[in-house]
Amino acid sequence: MKKSLLALAVLGVFAGEALAQSSSVTLFGVVDLSAQQIKNGNVNQKRMGADGINSNRLGFRGVEDLGGGMSAGFWLEAGMDPGLGTAGGSNGAPNQTNGASNLFNRRATVSLMGGWGEIRLGRDYTSGFWNTTIFDPFGTNGVGSFLNVSVNALGTNGGGTYVRANNIAAYFLPGNLGGLYGQAQIAPSEGNPGQKMQSFRLGYAAGPINVAVSTQQTEGSTLTTTGADWKHTNLAGSFNAGFATLMAQWDQQKGVGSRKQTTYLLGAVIPMGQGEIHVAYDNANPDGGTAAQNADSKQFAIGYVYNLSKRSALYGTYSQIKNSTGAAAVVAGTNNGGSALSGKSTGFEVGMRHAF
Fold first, then answer.
1. pTM of this prediction?
2. Which residues pair with 270 in a beta bridge?
3. CATH architecture of the domain with residue range 28-355
4. Which is it for the CA torsion 133, 139, 143, 146, positive or negative?
């Protein structure tokens, strides 16, 4: 009897070790801070900036091998502001259900994966936002972000679903389709206005070419004046020409009535030894509102990233937005106490990023 019990105990130890070997958990994160100078109109502000080239985060992710080509995984990722030492940070989601104060406000998902693709449940980026950030030379971060001019207050923002959405059920195509990739998402309202969302993305990446289209709709967006649906369509691509990776975007948002905004991007990432130059020109063209609401905003941004290692980098970025009469777009998402209405907004930052 004692020998049998001993044998069972030994088998239990080996079984535990086998299970442990089939799964893994990783702690990861990014700390990115900069010294910024923002000028809107005649008002200058010097401050500590965050998310200059990458968004600050702290996360945990894990994968378990289920056998037969199947695996299960989780991803928990929290935003943070290391300048203040606080959790949260900005996530482009101002309503009560998607606020930046949520613990894992960046991502909280569980997945089942196999040769047939991935089913992913939880809070995540929307399909519509993937194109916006991937094909922006600045990755929608820092003073040169595409979001400085693409996000507007004309009743065409998707509110809490522009960047991320809660309670998403998503399917991702497998990675063995000869360069074809894509995803589809749905999210229920669960009684929260502006949360019911559907989105779709399809792309092709092979050799130097990467091109994708995305479409997204949020029903009864909380940021539209009448609770009208918000629609977001993005067509973007990149081409690696060797001396530079060239990028372009056509981005359109539709909201109340005939109101819409079409934003264009032309940009490039140019390798320079251990560093790279990032450059972008963005042009936002609202339409369907009053004369002031139809005012354009144009942004030019240039930056340099010097890679100290695979994880650490120094960077500097300069951006300028020119607003036509009635427009008031600003760099870095702040008006710093001044106003860029019908005028200029400029930003300069120098910082450091470390990933772990």
1. 0.88
2. 277
3. Beta Barrel (2.40)
4. negative
